[in-house]
Amino acid sequence: xxxxxxxxxxxxxxxTIEKFLGNxxxxxxxxxxxxxxxxxxxxxxxENGFKPTYLISEDKKDIVNELKKLAxxxxxxxxxxxxxxxxxxxxxxxxxxxxxxxxxxxxxxFHEITKDxxxxxxxxxxxxxxxxVMAQQARRVLDRLVGFExxxxxxxxxxxxxxxxxxxxVALRLIVEREREIQAFSAKSQFKIExxxxxxxxxxxxxxxxxxxxxxxxxxxxxxxxxxxxxxxFKISSIEEKELKRSPSxxxxxxxxxxxxxxxxxxxLNQTMRAAQxxxxxxxxxxxxxxxxxxxxxxxxxxxxTITEMFGxxxxxxxxxETKTKGAQEAHEAIxxxxxxxxxxxxxxxxxxxxxxxxxxxxxxxxxxxxxQRTEINIGSDSFTQKFIASAEKIKFDGxxxxxxxSADDEDNAGDAFQKLPTLKTGQQMNALTIKxxxxxxxxxxxxxEASLVKKLEELGIGRPSTYAPIISTIIMRGYIVxxxxxxxxxxxxxxxxxxxxxxxKVLKETWGAEKNKLFxxxxxxxxxxxxxxxxxxxxxxxxxxxxxxxxxxxxxxKLVWNEVIEDFYRPFHKQVEKTLEISRPTNAERxxxxxxxSGKNLYVRIGRFGPLAQIGDNDDPEKxxxxxxxxxxxxxxxxxxxxxxxxxxxxxxxYKGKEIVSGIGRFGPFLKYDSKFISLGKEKDPRTVxxxxxxxxxxxxxxKEKEKIIKxxxxxxxxxxxxxxxxxxxxxxDNFKIPKGTDPKSLELEEVLAIIAKGSNGKHHG
Length: 767
Prior knowledge:
Low-confidence stretches: 411-416, 761-767
CATH topology of the domain at 189-247 and 371-441: Topoisomerase I, domain 3
Shape: globular
C-alpha cells in the first residue's frame, strides 16, 4: 500500500480521483458524515456552552474501523471532502475520530475533479478551517434545538408526529400566505381591443396585428369604441425604430440551476441536485453547491477558444460577473463544465440533459450581446384619440441567442413582438379587416413552484445552496404541503367583433386557474403555520431567519463565537416554549360550519388523527359521523354545502357479478370496495361521481394485476409465491420471506417453500 491515504465523502468521487493520483495514493470514501448528534436525545449540553455530543452511527462503525486501520499505516492522510462548510465539518470529524495528529493531516480542496485541480490541491494543502467547522456546527446545533423543543409543543397542542424547523417553517409560511392571497383575490375584467389591419395597396394576405393603447372597464364602453371604428379612417401616424441590445445571463449558481432545470427540463429540485452530484463526481462539472457567478481565468480562456472555433470571433465577449446573492459564502466558481470543449458527454439521460443546460448557459455567458431592432407603429383614426400600436422585433445579430435564452417562471408568450411587418411609411392608409374587444380577467397571484420558492428564499436571504432542496422535501414529507397539478375551471368571457361593417357579440368559454406542479398548503400545514406565527413570531420572521444566516456567515469569517450566537437565541426561545405549553389548542384546528339539515346536529371540520375531516355531531355524541375532506378542500375555506356532499359517501355505485360496488374516501384516499377488497380510485376519479362502467373497468384491471402478481399458490397452507418490487418472494399471512438467489420460484414445491419459511425471520423482507 502507498504511504498516502486520501479520504473523500463519496465512492463515485473516490473512483474519479483515483484516476489522477499515482499508485502511492489510496483513495477511500467516508460515505458522508461519519458521526452526528444522537437521534434518541438532544445531544447538546445546554449548560456547558451548548457542547454537542457526537455519536458514530451503527452503519458507519465498520467504515470508521477500516479508515482507522488504513490511517495508522499511512504516512500522510489527505482529507479531500467538499469545499464548503459541510465538507469542512466532515474533514474535522474524520480528523477527530481517526485521532490524526496535526503533522499527519493535510486538508485539500478543489471545486472541480480534474487532474490539474487535484495536483494543484495536493501541492497546496492547508489545515482544517475551524471557523467553517464552527459555522456548520452552529447551524446544526441551532436547528436541533429548535426542532427538539418545538416539535413536542406541536405534538401536544395539535397532533402527534409533527415537526418544526427554523427554515422549513418560514418556507411553509410563504406558501400559506400566498394561498391566502389567492383565496382573497377577486378577479376584475377589462376589455382589450385588438385589430387586424391591411396596408392600403398591399395584398389581402398582408396583415398587421395591433392593440389599442387603452383598455375599457365595461362592455358598453368597448362596444362604443368599436361602433366608432365602423366609419373610421385609419392611417399610420408614426413609425419608431430602436436598436436594442440584450445581454446573456450569468453562469449558474445552485439556485439558478435549480430554477432553470425546473422551467426548461421539468426537473424537481432533488432530481437536479442528484444529476448535478453525479456530474461533479464524474469530473464533468465544477462543484454544484455555490453562490458564485465567477469563472476562473482558465475557464474564460477556454470559453473564448470554444466560441471562436464554433461560431466565429465576432460571437466572443469575455465577461466576469459579480455575485449579488445576499450572504454569498465561500469563493467558489459558478457551476460550469470542467472542459468547455466537451459539448456532449457519455452519461445517463438526466445527466446529459442537465449537462447540456450547464454547457449552453456557461458558453452563452461569454458571448456577444444580441442586437434587436424593435419597430413600433402607431395607427391613428379621425374618429377617436386612442392609438392602435403594432410592434415587432427583428434580430439583427443573434449573439448569445444562438446558444441559449433564459426562461421565466410565468411566461406570457403573446407573440406579437415577433410578427413580421411589411414595408410601411408614415401617413399610409390602413384598412381594418377585423377589430374585436375581448374580455380579459386580472390574474391571481401565482402559487409557488419549487423553482419560484427557491428564488423567493434566496431573495430573502433564507437558507443556502445546500439547503433549498432539503427544506422543500421536508415540508412535503411532513404533509404540510403537497406538490400537485390541478385542472382549471370554466368561466364565461365576452367578445365583441367588428367585421364587414357590423358589430356583433358572443359569449365564449375559457379555462382558467389550471395548475401544474405547484405547491399547495395542506390543512395541517396551515394550522401549524398559524400556531407558530402566533406563538413564535421571531422564528417565523423572515428578517430574523435571514439575520441568523448572516450570523453563520460571520462565524465562518471568524468574527463571532458560535455558542454566544446560540446563547443569545436560545434563552428567550426556551422561555417562550414553556409559556406556549400552558396555552390551549389552536382555534383554527376546528371550525363549525352550521347544522346538518337531516339530523339537526352541528357540522364541524377539524384536524383528526389521520388528517382533516368533517364531523356531524359534537365530540361527546356517541353517534357522531366522520368523513375525510376531499383533495383540495381546506378547513378554512370549505362551505357547509361542500361538507354535506362528503357525507353522501360511501355510496352504492351498482353491482357486478352479483356483488355490490361501493365508493368512498378513506385514510389513503378515494376507493372502491368490491368483494371485501379495497381498490384505489387514484387521483383522477371522484368517488361521488364515478359510474358503474368505469368502476367495473377499474376492478377488472386491479384483479388482472393481482393475478399477474401470483407465481404460485398453496391455498390450504395460506402460502403464495409473488412477484414484488425487488423480485419474487414467499408470503404467508403478514410475513414475507426471501427466496434464495439462483432459485427458480416457479419450480418450488411445498416442502421447499416450508423449508425456506422454517429458517425463520432472518429471511423476512417486504416484497
